[in-house]
Write a structure and sequence with these properties.
The two termini are about 35 Å apart. α1 crosses α5. The protein is about 35% helix and about 15% strand. By secondary structure, the chain is an alpha/beta fold. Strands 6-5-10-11 form a 4-stranded parallel β-sheet. It has a 3-stranded antiparallel β-sheet with strand order 7-8-9. A two-stranded antiparallel sheet has the order 1-2. It has one domain.
Amino acid sequence: MGPEELTRSWETGEQLLSANGTSYNVGGRLQATTRAWPLDPIPLVLDEREWTQIESAVVQRATLINALLADFYGPQRVLRDKQLPPALLLANPRFLRPCHGIEPVGGVFLYSYAVDMARGPDGQWRVTSDRTQAPSGMGYTLENRLVSARSLSAVFNTCRLRQLALFYDARRDALLSLAAMQQGNPLIVLLTPGPHSETYFEHSFLAGHWGFPLVEGADLTVRDSRVYLKTLTGLEPVDVIIRRLDDVYCDPIELRADSLLGIPGLVHAVRAGNVAIDNALGSGVPESPGILSYLPVLCRHLLGEELRGLLR
């Protein structure tokens, strides 16, 4: 592609982003500034070999972090075996004591995981941060692909690209499978802090893509240890909550008392096993740099493996 063709293609991309309302609310305040989504006109291309290495390392890392969460909120073997200084966990404000001993529906703590990476001067990819609490990116990734596929259609048609749609279909099927453990006609909702959230576009985009109701805390209520969605025809039981709300704001009774965003009694409903949450409450602990520095040791202890690449 020449400069003129690339410019025309990117103008098409910008028009699509504008028409779709793709944005990011800077600051997340009541008077937050809405910023247009900055999409690079030239996609970053990785060959299959390089991507396979990244994929393998990320899968191992997610498996390790899920095992860590199960241990932190369960037997805490890594503390008893002196693999992690107790203060890094017990003095961590992201460690939610009311959630200790709660086994999530399905036994999985980490349903969604995102990792920020950068290529170092030596050409190797390294992790700059892990996102385990309410990770963003899935909606923006799909929007990026859809816009790029239309603005660079000639390029996309000549390349063999790994399809993203399969991931989103598998993700939706996994949520439905998890919800089906509760009842035959499951209800899954996406919980958002509201329109002033930094990534509200993504919340709305994903809810629409999957066909799940987009709700705020005031739309839900807990009755008799179950979470219900308030509708015009009455209360409907909720089986799975995809939360885009930070842990401590999810329940003003057992977590942060001044929260106006959460659902009173949510922790009790989770403890009773009546609702699944993606990700489990308290899953923000592994984002702490102090804990992440121990990942190589913890990987050997919990998985019996060496941590593959992507070291901090």
